[in-house]
Amino acid sequence: MDPRLLTQLAIIVELGSVTKAARKLNVTQPTLSRSIKIMEDRVGGPLLRRERFGVSPTEIGRRLAEEGRRILHRTETAQTMINEWKHGLAGELRVGVGPMLAATLMGEFFAELMNEPPGYSLKLHSETAARVTKRLKDEELDVAIIPFELNVAEEGLVRELLFQDRLAVFVGEDDPLARTKQVNPQALAPYQWIAVGETSGLFDLTRETLDRIGLPGVAPTIENSGDVTMTFRMLESAKTCSLLPLMQLLPYLKRYRIAPVDLSMKLQTRNVAFWTTQTSRDRPEVLDFLSRLQGFISDHISAPSLPEPDPQTPHR
Question: For domain 92-164+271-300, which architecture applies?
């Protein structure tokens, strides 16, 4: 099958219209219709269904369109590589970052990095720690900045501690508990809890912590595995609380109008690490990126070592 025909089919299916696809490809509609006819003759059946507002693929049309998408993606990737090479970028680094770090330290890091850009391109992906780890193991990413300890198998991966952190309960900055010393965990019972997936890669950490601090009957009202700024907004506006990493958020309390609760017990550590694969660990781009990141962390995370967590609270 002619790859050009497959890419044309992919664009038709993507746009749901032969007319729109013809405009995008800068060809006439009859030309595109002839291309579909050639493929249908080869297949021995229809690739598209005519519908009221356009077209949709048949099963074989969908599968062939997927092949066309892969061809388009590889072509675009090759063109990007050519453009980057022309601009002096020798290589690329695919970086995975959890949503919490993306909204705090890593956003600042990449902004600062642009003042002295590296000699390679960066492809950034922000997802939960569990998804980032999977993409790293599947070799879809080169490095990841996520929690040091995860509930996943670590075969083929290596990690290096970036900084120490621990979890804390956060509320809005105007909440009375934000100004109270040595808060008994029972004072949090009336609050609506928001579980943030980034704290563990799974949602069970909030529930386990609630059990350990003496609130077994309390359950999260909302589970948020996406943009963490939604959680910050809810903390600011309602009687809600959430379990979040303390050191990552300390520099941004005023920006997001949130505050940690001074609990009468310490919660578990949640250290942050630089993860990569064993095969990528010594790549020049990886070493350069890690060196830049370590320098940034040393300038922005300067607090003393964190106290040990309460022995009654599980360490994950």
Answer: 3-Layer(aba) Sandwich (3.40)
Choose among 272, 8, 5, 306: nearest CA to 144: 272
Cα–Cα distance, 13 to 68 (Å, whole number): 10
Half-sphere exposure of 35 (CA within 13 A, CB side): 22
Written as six digits, the tokens of 308 are: 């040990």
Evaluate whether the domain defined by 167-260 bears CATH number 3.40.630.10. no
How do residues 106-164 score in pLDDT, each as one tens digit? Answer: 989 999 998 888 888 899 999 888 889 889 999 999 999 998 887 665 678 999 999 99
Please report, as a single letter, which amino acid is at residue 121. S
- Predicted model pTM: 0.68
* Cβ count within 10 A of residue 39: 21
Backbone angles phi, psi at 189, to 5 degrees: -60, -40
